[in-house]
Structures are given as C-alpha cells and as structure tokens.
Amino acid sequence: MHNKLVLGPILGLESDQLYTVVVVTKKSADSVHVSYLNHQLVPAQLIGEISDGKVWRMELSIDTSGADVIDYSLQQDGLTLIDQQGNQSWSFYVPSEKEKPKFAYASCNGFSDLTLMNTTDEPFRLWKTMASEHKREPFSLLLMGGDQVYADAIWTKISLLKSWNELDRKEKVKRRATKNMVKQIDRFYSELYVDRWNREPMASMLASIPSIMMWDDHDIFDGWGSYPEDIQTCDVYQAIFHSARKHFELLQVRGKQNRSLMQLNTQPIVHYGATLTFRDYDILVLDNRSERSLSKVMGSEQWQSVSSYLAQNTSPNLLILSAVPVVYRDFSFAEGAVDATPWEEELTDDLKDHWRAKEHEGERSRLIMHLLESGNRRQGRSVILSGDVHVGALGVIRDRRSENNRPVHQVVSSGIVHPAPSYMQWLGICAITNDRTEHLDENNQIITDMLRPFGSDKYIRSRNFATLLEGNDNKLWVNWLTEAKDKPNFPIL
C-alpha cells in the first residue's frame, strides 16, 4: 500500500550540513515522515496549505566528513509515499569537506506566452541535459535565479481578472479583490506549481539536487514591481502578489523556517534575502522583487543586512544571486525615447525592470561599490549569477584604483526553458541598446564591460544553463551547456 504525493519531493540546502525536503500531500494527510541514513522516521513539520494540498517540511542533518550518496524515503500516515512517476525513494550527492562542489545555475524555467510554448520543440531538453550531466558527475547544488514558473497566463486563465483587466485604469484602481477572485488566484498558483514542477526530468532533478531559489517577476507576473504606484498598490494587484508570495515562500523558500534567511524568526517577513556557507563558498541571495517599485529595488532593512554581511565576509569565494543582471547592455536610449512617447505606461515595466534604469542607478552603484570593497578587502573571488534576459552572457566590473584590487565577474544563464530572442528580435534589441565600456567614477577607474566567453559569440543566443566547478588550476571554470553546437566556457581566476 502507498500514498501518492501531489508534488515533490523538493530538496533544499540551508547550510553546509542542513538539507531540507518539502512535499505537498493531499489535505487528508495527518503526518509525514522522512527516513535517511541511520535516521528512522524523522517527523515533518506542516508549514502551510495550498489549494492542492498540505505543504510539509523536513530537515536532514548530514555528516560531511566524507563524500556520500544519501538515500531517502517518505511515509504518510504509516504508508510509503511515491511521487507522480511512481518512485518511492530518492538520492542526492554530498561532497566531502575538502571536495570542490559542482554547481549548476539556471533561470527562466517556462514560457511567457502560449505561442512560444506551442512552437518550441522539446521544451525540457536542457533539463534532460542536466539529468545526463548529473548522472555522469553529480551536482552538489542547483542555484535557480528567478522565473521558476511563468504566471503570466493568470490574466487569461482567471475570468474575473480578465474582466477586471478590461476596465479603465481609474476603475481598476477603485475595485476591490472579491473573495471569489482571491480563491481563484490561489487555485491558479497552486495548479501552476503542481503542473510545471511535476514535469520530467525537472521533477527528478528537484528531488535529487539540493537547490536554492530566488524569485523574479514572472513568478508573480511579468514586470511586477515596475508598474506605476497607483496600479502596483491597488487591491487586485496586491491580492495577486500576496498569493504569489505565499506559494513562493512555501515551495521555493521552503517556509519561513528556512535557516538561511536574513529575516529568520522575524515577523512580518518583508524580504527573502538569504546567506549561507557551502564548503569554501559563501552564497548571498538577493531578493530584488519583494519590495521592488519604480523607485527602489531593495528596501532599507535588506540593504542594511547586505551591507553588514559584505563588510564582514571573509570567504575566498562569494557567489551573489541577482535575478536581473547588474552588468548588461545599456537601455538608456530606449528608456529616454519611451519616456517621451504616449506608450510610456505600456512599455515602462520592461525598461524599468533593469538595474541600469535611471531610477535604479544609485542602488546599482551602491551594490557594485560594496561588492568591490568586499572583494578587495578579502582578496577573494566574487561572482554574480544572473538570468532574466533570455541569453547567456559574461560581464566584469574592474576596479583600477589599485593594482591589487579584485574584479567582480558576472555569469548570465538564461533561460533553461524559455527560448532565446529570434534573430530579428535580437537585431531590434541591439539597435536600441549598446554594450560600450561603462565608467562608474569621475576618474574612469571603475569600469564595466561585457566579455566574450571562449568558444561562442559574446551573447549566447540559445537556451542554456551554466555549470561552475573549480579546477586544479584554482580557476573557477564556467561552462554554458546549450542546445546549439557552441560550447561556451570561461575561467574566472
């Protein structure tokens, strides 16, 4: 006899030795337990409910003295739990304390519209590639930098929202979100996660590689946080945001109990920024979406935590998750043109969503200076991991004020499922943007550049995910695995 999971298992990491498992069961479940190594039937904690079922969290404390493959299984109310594929046990790889961990980084796990979905051959081809790579040489950690689901269909799937969206803007702002509307919104996000995350081979990867996730706009809906204040704060938009946040907190963050959260044990949670150490790597996860508005990317509390963390960090290796690239093409020409046209409100969310939007330039400069100061002080490697733009890319921030200063590199991997821009779309993007060298101080000593990875064009215009592994040469080798013939790579010294 067995019970079937609604969703999961979803494996997470919150410290060097603390792994977590989150599952969704039917609402009739009274208890869930996990069994692993010499631990028998460790009880799960019920952390919430979604429309499709109950959400449970389990903590696994792992001895890291030697490399090991950890097998685990689950029970519900005394019966074996199986996943949607019929598996009743799963396993993951734990590197030894002295081993260099192998990372995977991915973003943009879905489609922004139905046409793209229906015209894309093998939507999960790159997940199959990851599964093959994991079987050949297992990943220690999967970092997911945003858009783990694409919720844009909310405007057509929910009839009440479709009708509301057809109203005049003044009327939209005045309308309240009804109980029925909120119920439909909750059901939409629940069904979205259950449907998308049960797809193979993604489901197997989430069960066998511990992951750390941070959301971006499509996990709410396209452009969230970059709309004018009256519509951003209206009751219907806020109802959508609260539902999206609930599902993000339960399934991506794995509950407000997540030990890596900067705001752990504080109420209410206003951001989900996180920090943790994994072997020789410190990981800083920036939440650039929870508090975002046209005038800010991160709130004061998160900024204070980030600044303090960077000032005290001593790690030789720092990975920084920023869903939207800090170093990328300059959209100022397009932004200025749109600001002077009647289409400003319609297009503003796409342009204001970048770190280089003029409203965010001050915050971006602040982040860059903190990262440079941290790297220079600890004489360590700093790598930003980003996605969002549907192409792979490589950027660098150089500080030439002293010959001993350390650069900050940026790896962009995007997207693992979402297609890259077509040739004509990319020509259009290039026509209204540029990637000239950028100077960030009056003496032209701090500069940013886009670099060309070895073995490819400067911009990787095909679906991709990245792997990061330190070699015997002490270089952090970045490889973009793509569905094209190119094999882009780059060593970060």
Which descriptors would you attach to this protein?
493 residues; alpha+beta; 8-stranded mixed sheet; 24 strands
Helix-strand layout with pairing:
Blueprint lengths: L1 E3 L2 E7 L4 E8 L6 E5 L2 E5 L1 E6 L2 E9 L6 E9 L2 E4 L7 E5 L8 E4 L7 H5 L6 H12 L4 E4 L9 H4 L1 H7 L3 H6 L4 H19 L4 H7 L2 E3 L15 H4 L2 H18 L21 E5 L2 E5 L14 H13 L4 E5 L10 H8 L4 H9 L8 H18 L2 E6 L6 E7 L8 E5 L10 H10 L5 E2 L6 E6 L12 E7 L5 E7 L6 E4 L1
Structural class: alpha+beta
Supply the number of helical segments: 14
Instruction: Report the end-to-end length measured between terminal Cα atoms.
Output: 54 Å
Mean pLDDT rating: 93
Bin the strand percentage: 25-35%
Strand line-up in the sheet with most strands: 14-15-16-17-19-18-21-20
Described by strand count, sense and barrel closure, the largest sheet is: 8 strands, mixed
- Portion in helices: 25-40%
Give the radius of gyration: 22 Å
Number of strands: 24
Task: Extract low-pLDDT stretches.
Answer: 340-348
Overall shape: globular
Folded structure, characterized:
The structure is a single chain. It is built from 14 helices and 24 strands. It has helices at residues 114-118, 125-136, 154-157, 159-165, 169-174, 179-197, 202-208, 229-232, 235-252, 300-312, 332-339, 344-352, 361-378, 423-432; strands at 2-4, 7-13, 18-25, 32-36, 39-43, 45-50, 53-61, 68-76, 79-82, 90-94, 103-106, 141-144, 211-213, 274-278, 281-285, 317-321, 381-386, 393-399, 408-412, 438-439, 446-451, 464-470, 476-482, 489-492. The strands form four sheets. It has an eight-stranded mixed β-sheet with strand order 14-15-16-17-19-18-21-20. Strands 1, 4, 5, 8, 9 and 10 form a six-stranded mixed β-sheet that branches. Strands 13-12-11-22-23-24 form a six-stranded mixed β-sheet.
